[in-house]
Inverse folding.
């Protein structure tokens, strides 16, 4: 899910779009397996007793748990994106209510990344961007291929700052 054209500025081009690493879906997947396994066992134990009402209660509980524990986290993961353009970084998230944050590349003054042991194994990390505003820095958690994304952001920031410095000196 890239940045929609209607939200882009004149002359803006999308460089990269990413979302958090798929590792954040491990627990929802585990919940799906456990609920399906226990639910299947419970349905077989209940059988056809009580004209099938207990079976429908188990099925309803399974549906609620799967929706809450697996489908909702998946949809949150799917709709939370980070888009890097040649002019700014855009964070968008939300299922029903979309929210976002935009940081122009010209205002960024620090780009750093962090990787703990499991991030190093999985090839992801957290990108931390500080800009010249009062707000706290933007943390992009669990970004896949963090080194490449960090390098791309840093290069674009340097290009933007070099261009701004050249324009001001003329």
């Amino acid at each position: 899910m890239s940045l929609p054209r209607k939200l882009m500025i004149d002359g803006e081009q999308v460089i990269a779009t990413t979302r958090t690493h798929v590792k954040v879906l491990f627990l929802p997947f585990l919940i799906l397996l456990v609920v399906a396994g226990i639910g299947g066992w419970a349905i077989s134990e209940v059988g056809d007793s009580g004209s099938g009402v207990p079976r429908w209660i188990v099925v309803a509980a399974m549906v609620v748990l799967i929706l809450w524990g697996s489908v909702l986290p998946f949809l949150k993961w799917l709709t939370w994106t980070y888009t890097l353009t040649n002019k700014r970084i855009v964070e968008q998230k939300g299922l029903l209510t979309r929210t976002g944050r935009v940081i122009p590349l010209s205002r960024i003054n620090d780009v750093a990344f962090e990787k703990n042991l499991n991030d190093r194994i999985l090839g992801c990390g957290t990108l931390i961007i500080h800009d010249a505003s009062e707000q706290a820095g933007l943390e992009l958690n669990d970004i896949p291929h963090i080194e490449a994304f960090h390098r791309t952001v840093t290069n674009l920031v340097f290009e933007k700052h070099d261009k701004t410095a050249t324009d001001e000196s003329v």
Observations:
- The beta strands are 14-18, 81-85, 88-93, 99-104, 108-114, 124-131, 138-144.
- Helices lie at 26-46, 53-79, 117-122, 146-169.
